[in-house]
């Protein structure tokens, strides 16, 4: 839905739908783990379907939204391809780790920045686009940030999962960004 809104020029609504996918992603694992006993096969399926959703929501959608923001030169597209490829690599590696390294398939930490981190970045970039008057400067910022985030996905660093308080703070930040995005 975010991609469709972006394609039709409703960029603020596209970002809202993108953030809604981030909100859902914060709780889907907790809900699945709390749903009672699941077989290993059901858990592995959950990991796989979550990855597919994450790839569309946090790999493809941000690149599509930024593309329809007007950053669609050939070099922008190369950066988005790198971003999406890094997201795919990170998600595939996470799945491999969960299946191979944990008996209960429940990872306690991430290797590399989790792809939903893009929910912190994209709204901030949209605000930058509204505040900065130089199109060239905004394009450079978008490209550098998208490239940096993509590379951060595949860094060999351990990052702990968010606890509930951190999740609530993240939701508050995203809500503030949405409000600011519509006000500007």
Overview of this protein structure:
This protein has 7 helices and 2 strands. The mean pLDDT is 88. The two termini are 23 Å apart. Helix 2 runs antiparallel to helix 5 (118-131) and helix 2 (11-33) runs antiparallel to helix 7. A two-stranded antiparallel sheet has the order 1-2. The longest helix has 29 residues, at 40-68. Helix content is 76%, strand content 3%. It is mainly α.
Q: What kind of sheet is the major sheet?
A: 2 strands, antiparallel
Within the largest sheet, what's the order of strands? 1-2
Instruction: Write down the overall geometry.
Output: globular
Question: What proportion strand?
Answer: under 5%
Order of helices and strands: HHHHEHHEH
**Overall mean pLDDT score?**
88
Helix content: over 70%
Rg from Cα: 17 Å
Number of helical segments?
7
Amino-to-carboxy terminus distance: 23 Å
Strand element count? 2
Structural class determined from secondary elements = mainly alpha
Residue stretches low in confidence (pLDDT < 50, at least 5 long) are none
Show the helix and strand layout:
Elements: H1 2-7, H2 11-33, H3 40-68, H4 74-101, E1 109-111, H5 118-131, H6 135-153, E2 158-160, H7 164-183
């Amino acid at each position: 839905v975010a991609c469709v809104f972006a394609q039709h020029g409703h960029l603020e609504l596209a970002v809202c739908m993108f953030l809604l996918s981030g909100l859902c992603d914060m709780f889907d694992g907790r809900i699945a783990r709390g749903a009672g006993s699941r077989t290993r096969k059901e858990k592995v399926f959950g990991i796989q379907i979550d990855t597919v959703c994450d790839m569309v929501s946090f790999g493809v959608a941000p690149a599509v939204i930024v593309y329809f923001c007007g950053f669609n030169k050939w070099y922008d597209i190369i950066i988005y391809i790198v971003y999406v490829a890094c997201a795919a690599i990170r998600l595939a590696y996470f799945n491999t780790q969960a299946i191979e390294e944990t008996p209960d398939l429940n990872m306690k930490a991430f290797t590399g920045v989790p792809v939903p981190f893009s929910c912190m970045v994209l709204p901030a970039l949209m605000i930058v686009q509204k505040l900065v008057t130089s199109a060239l400067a905004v394009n450079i910022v978008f490209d550098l940030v998208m490239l940096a985030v993509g590379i951060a996905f595949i860094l060999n660093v351990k990052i702990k999962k968010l606890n509930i308080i951190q999740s609530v703070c993240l939701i508050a930040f995203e809500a503030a960004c949405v409000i600011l995005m519509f006000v500007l």
